Amino acid sequence: MTMQRVLPLGTLVLFAMCVLAGGAFAQDNPKVSIESQEETFGGPVDVPVKISGFDDVGAISLTITYDPEVLSYPEGADTDELISGAPRGDFAANLPEPGEVRISWFDGSGTDPIINGDQVLLQLTFDDYEGGTSPVAFDVESEIADPQSDPYNASYQDGEVRDEASPIDVSLRRGFDGTADPTNYKLVALPGQADVPFGETVSGRQGTGWRGFRESGNEGETGLQECSVELSCAFQAGQGFWVLSQDDWSFEGTLPEVVADGLSIPLHGGWNIVSNPLRVDVGWQDVQATNGLTEPLWRWTDDGRWEQVSTMTSATEKGEAYYLFNEPGLDSLEIPTVGVGAAGMSSPLPVSQAPGEGLREARSDLRESRSGPRPDSRTRSRGNPEASRAGGGLSGDGHVPKDSSHPGTSTNQLLRIHAEADGKRVAAVTVGLSSSLDEPHTYRAPPGYFAGTTFYIAGENGSPKFARRVLPADSRPRSFSLLLRGDPGSDVQLVATGHADDWESHRPVLVERETGQTHELKSDPSVRISLPEDEGEASLLLRLVEN
Questions:
Q1: What is d(CA 19, CA 147) in angstroms, rounded to the nearest whole number?
Q2: CA 37 to chain centre
Q3: In sequence order, what are the beta bridge partners of 357?
Q4: Distance of CA 263 to the CA centre of its chain
Q5: pLDDT tier, 374 (very low <50, low <70, confident <90, very high otherwise)
Q6: 480: which residues sit within 8 A by CB, 6+ positions away?
Q7: How confident is the prediction for the chain on average, in pLDDT?
Q8: What are the residue boundaries of the structural domains of the chain, listed by start?
Q9: Is 199 left (phi over 0), alpha (psi -120 to 50) or beta?
Q10: What is the CATH topology of the domain spanning 2-163?
Q11: What confidence tier does 16 reach under pLDDT thresholds 50, 70, 90?
């Protein structure tokens, strides 16, 4: 950030011995800048401070701030330990407190200014770098003056110290069980700062040898955009694609590591394909808390179905990507991370730990070992992390909590129904009631682009599609529209599970809308649904009937 400063001379106490004279020298864009550095965890750091565009410099007063959890000086350090390379031996530096260093000099004779104003003025010589990113910035009190003690109208350019990028050796390969079945599509991604054309990870001709798609976020089939000559696709950090190929999808090579203490993945509205480009896994609850999200993270399994996951696995492991519904309309997804350490590893900060809490102890241990993950004092948190976890009264595991004020009594009535086709579980929904909610708690069902069988809760007029819908206990009506799709003429088994004790006041009844046939799920929790021969779609109604 560049800042223009013209400050009263009274802020420069060190100039008191100088005789004040009229107007400052007119200069062409005089500038003071701190040169950003990329460094390795655990070592000393020299940060150059440069000046340019000055004629004669008669006095200098700089106050520079930094993050003491990232950069440090030895206790009791004086000038020779704080700075080096100054053009005169009478420069002075002191450390009023951790996180702030002050530097001063003036030409006491009034006749011996610093003539060459285009140079590295000096270097800040930090003793230790703990990893992560620290701004190194000028305080507003900083000034440089001419021999008459008139401050120059200079600009001040801040810098930073951040992790040095290290290469990631990547070896990924994903195979396919034929190309005739759409369920064989896979979600893939590359780790690190990837900038790799999609076509370099597959072989053969596009359209016949392989097909790839990116997600646009639009509802329905228009959400997919096929990679082609007209629509180029390239892997980027934190993003991914659908792929189906005659041969394996693979990548062998070296990619730059993601260097950031808070990785930000661009998002668009609706559904997004996201991935973890870091070297280590990241807990999804931590990501939810950082971004104010309640939506789950979805993984597409090798047997062609969706499942919720609690961890964003590093793409270095299998090259996996995930689906996320951007319910709050975020521009980006922030991934809480720390810097890269001696082993080149990163780690998420536990949400339960407030930023900065217990960091000194952790960093002290790390200084001894010089390895392993490190907590980050600068992890950003928006909103109330616990509220984000709870999801409007839901506990972190996605279930509605019991009412602790009435031991032994449940205030929740939750029912999970999963669909089985050809003996395999293919989809599931969760419905129910909760006295702990003031409004419905929902999350979206991922798109069924390549699923053989889909099962979801339908919103008003069929849209949106939900995987979960829990209503306040006093809601009316207490019913849910369900839609089951699969191969025309096939049979799908619906199996209901839940806690029997939770269903003392209501009983779940499943109604086949076309035939009117009803099924009492509490007494008979397994129901076979025959899909129509024409469209392969069955409209169902689940009613919660009071006993």
A1: 9
A2: 24
A3: none
A4: 6
A5: very low
A6: 431, 457, 469, 541, 542
A7: 81
A8: 2-163, 167-390, 412-546
A9: alpha
A10: Immunoglobulin-like (2.60.40)
A11: very low
